[in-house]
Write a structure and sequence with these properties.
Layout: H1 2-16, H2 23-45, H3 48-61, H4 74-123, H5 139-164, H6 176-183, H7 185-188, H8 196-199, E1 202-209, E2 217-223, E3 233-241, E4 256-261, E5 275-283, E6 290-298, H9 320-340, H10 344-349, H11 351-373
């Protein structure tokens, strides 16, 4: 019996665990420790520096090879080389495709010229559109018809007064291009208050295509005679590259702008708004005397657009600021060519801008739908 009692005591001690604590107590302690650890982890993850460090480490993993390709047999790697050669031939054909597209652009640019010239003539009041030219039903016309009956009485009362006044009839479409520049966010940031009196004289913007393998184009800004500069046309040429880069052919995504060259603006005396005169005091170290020196500094202006930064030579490292300026310049040149010049009236009325907003909203909605479609309520949620 004594032996049986001792065995029972031993079993009891084992169940109690170290120090005589029960197993329930041990489990409770482990649960508390787990909660403390979770709290510490949450606290650490709330630290911005820790999150930034983790993000940096994750970013460094992007694009890294998994090692799968390297582990493939030589015979498979040989076949992959054949596929890459096919891909290179595809890239060369793609470049030929874009060359033919450019030829089509040049062909239709000549067909567009008559339309653009007539647009300019209407804007600048060289011609007055006929009734047939103005046959265009719009929502504004429908609203006017609905309100016509309600306004009839008021119109009769004001008829006598209207006859005594000369109807306002400005020539052409005032500030057509200035309004376009101010309507487009990408361009509005370029236009300063002191630019506006000059841009009111802008009567047309044209695109001239280079009918050669370089696929470049020139933007022409036509001005009427003004008191600011003597140039009738300000030009900016963009050089494009169509062929793939020999050192990295698979990065090819079509023609790209590689450089731009502006023009010299012949400012009249005292009218150059791209610079400003700043007076600074200088003190002589030895004599202690001071003098006032006038220096010239660059001033923010739309017309700096015609003095783009030079593209560094191949192999020369580009600083971040210059790279940003070049990227913005190329984007603006492309936007003028592809959007503003072909659809000028729609940017003047704001309709083109509304269409762009609608396209962005549709893209966002499609992304949200894709995310929602990934969720299947019939499947159990996974816990991490």
């Amino acid at each position: 019996m004594a032996e049986n009692n001792q065995a029972s005591d031993a079993v009891a001690n084992m169940e109690a665990g170290p120090g005589g604590d029960s197993m329930d107590d041990v489990e409770e302690v482990e649960e508390i420790q787990g909660n403390v650890t979770d709290d510490k982890v949450n606290l650490v993850l709330q630290n911005p520096q820790v999150l930034a460090s983790l993000q940096h480490q994750l970013d460094s993993l992007v694009g890294q090879r998994s090692g799968y390709i390297e582990s493939l047999p030589k015979v498979v790697k040989r076949r992959i080389k054949a596929l890459k050669k096919l891909q290179l031939n595809h890239t060369k054909l793609e470049a030929k495709f874009y060359e033919e597209v450019h030829q089509l652009e040049c062909k239709y640019a000549k067909l567009y010229e008559n339309l653009y010239d007539k647009r300019k003539d209407i804007v600048t009041a060289h011609i007055e559109p006929t009734d047939s030219d103005c046959e265009w039903e719009s929502s504004d016309d429908e609203e006017e018809e609905e309100e016509g009956d309600n306004k009839l009485a008021d119109e009769l009362k004001e008829k006598a007064q209207i006859e005594d006044k000369e109807e306002e009839n400005p020539s052409g479409i005032p500030e057509f291009w200035l309004t376009i520049l101010k309507n487009v966010d990408l361009l509005a940031d370029m236009v300063q208050e002191h630019d506006e009196p000059i841009l009111k004289h802008l009567k047309d913007v044209k695109v001239q295509y280079c009918d050669n393998p370089n696929m470049g184009f020139t933007l022409e800004f036509h001005f009427e005679e003004n008191v600011f500069f003597t140039n009738q046309v300000l030009k900016k040429h963009y050089t494009m590259k169509c062929e793939p880069d020999e050192s990295d052919p698979f990065s090819y995504e079509g023609p790209e702008i590689i450089s731009s060259v502006g023009c010299t603006i012949d400012w009249k005396k005292g009218k150059n708004i791209t610079v400003r005169l700043v007076k600074k005091k200088q003190k002589h170290k030895g004599k202690g005397t001071t003098r006032v020196v006038t220096k010239t500094e660059q001033n923010d202006s739309f017309f700096n657009f015609f003095s783009p930064p030079a593209v560094p030579k191949e192999g020369v490292e580009v600083d971040e600021e210059t790279e940003s300026l070049l990227s913005a310049d190329f984007e603006i040149g492309h936007f003028f060519k592809e959007r503003v010049v072909p659809r000028a009236v729609l940017y003047f009325t704001g309709e083109a801008i509304e269409d762009e907003f609608e396209e962005e909203e549709e893209e966002v909605n499609e992304e949200e739908e894709d995310e929602d479609s990934d969720y299947d309520p019939s499947k159990p949620m996974l816990a991490f």
